[in-house]
Amino acid sequence: DGGITQSPKYLFRKEGQNVTLSCEQNLNHDAMYWYRQDPGQGLRLIYYSQIVNDFQKGDIAEGYSVSREKKESFPLTVTSAQKNPTAFYLCASSFRAGFDSGELFFGEGSRLTVL
Amino acid sequence: SQQGEEDPQALSIQEGENATMNCSYKTSINNLQWYRQNSGRGLVHLILIRSNEREKHSGRLRVTLDTSKKSSSLLITASRAADTASYFCAAVGSRLTFGEGTQLTVNP
Question: Could you tell me if residue A98 is left (phi over 0), alpha (psi between -120 and 50 degrees) or otherwise beta?
Answer without folding.
Answer: left
